[in-house]
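Components:
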Amino acid sequence: MTIELRAVTHRFGERVVLRDVDLVLAEQRIGIVGANGSGKSTLARLLNGLVVPTQGRVLVDGLDTAREGAAVRRRVGFVFTDPDAQIVMPTVAEDVAFSLRRSELGRAARAARVNETLSRFGLAGHADHPAHLLSGGQKQLLALAAVLVTEPAVLVCDEPTTLLDARNARRVAALLAGLPQQVVLVTHHLDHVAGFDRVLVVDEGTVVADGPPAAALPAYARLLDEVDRAEPADAVGGVPPP
Amino acid sequence: MIGLYVPGDSPLHRARAGVKLAVLAVLLLVVSLVPSPWVLGAGLALLVAASAVSGVGAPAVLGQLRPLLWVLVFVVVVQIWLAGPLAAGRVAASLVLAVGAAGLVTLTTRTQELLDALVTALRPLRHLGVDPDRAGLVLALAVRAVPVLAGLAAEVRQARVARGADRSVRAFAVPLVIRSLRYADRLGEALAARGVDD
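Structure:
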């Protein structure tokens, strides 16, 4: 599926978070990297219409996210950083079933789809368990299962491994890598996008590097070095000494 | 309802949520209207039998009654003082029966089935402007929010203690409200992403 951003600018109040972005995203695996506050999460949210651009257009398979948001969201699933905010039903199976509430499947087919999805994500044994008692890794797997049960063509993930330990982060990354869907992954874990088809580096609201990981990731490393040299105190979130 | 469902295949588990809720309503109505020792005794016997049939186990059923304990003690003491031991026994039995029966319904019914029953029950009110699906979703979110907010409160309490402000109400309330609002904001975004308003 092709996602097109045409001259997209987005502001939150007076603050410009994305500036004049033109992109055509057609690759199967696309990574987005950048510092906190660089605009990468806003860029991700534009892709399924969660955020509508202040200027410009975002087209998903030809559908304008501003006018056909519902149709876009049926095609593009979204996974957030914090699964606790994404899980809306009390138990594991109920949360996955919630995604199918408007599906045309019958009750039995729906239950079968839920069971099959839970098995695929290693959650079958937890179907009737309270979602809040799952581990962090299991919660993120549940969040993924709840999105993928609707079989979207594209999956956009906004730092899905940030809150996970190394083992669970690796597990989620491996799972994303093996999906048949087109995946757009926003992450700080550069190793998770090293095998991707394309990586975008976002800095101060613009895409400053775009290409295969072998070219884009070193460009990002150089950018970080430049920032470190220019603002040594800011690089660790501190304030300059008096 | 907060994930208290105990999986099983008993007749109680298999019964439809709407039927269980209707039986519960009738039981509570009868006990309220005819609170005789015979009716209450029969009701309690029925509760014990239903609990045994359900197979959820005595600890799970008794666990439903545990939060009631102090209320029960208070009510019984007040009732003995005001109306005598017979009335106190009647009130105590009614309370145990009501909470125990409601708890048994919760233990043997998935939340989704309870919500579906609620949505079905509210459907006739649609022409009065009530949106049954929205009401069901609101209830589900409320149920889901309880453990999340309890977790946030625990984290804020720990942070307060770690910073040596363990007696400050402000140091507890302000971050809790801010984090709760942030959670609500993220939840809203997640619901939009899952097509709730589409």
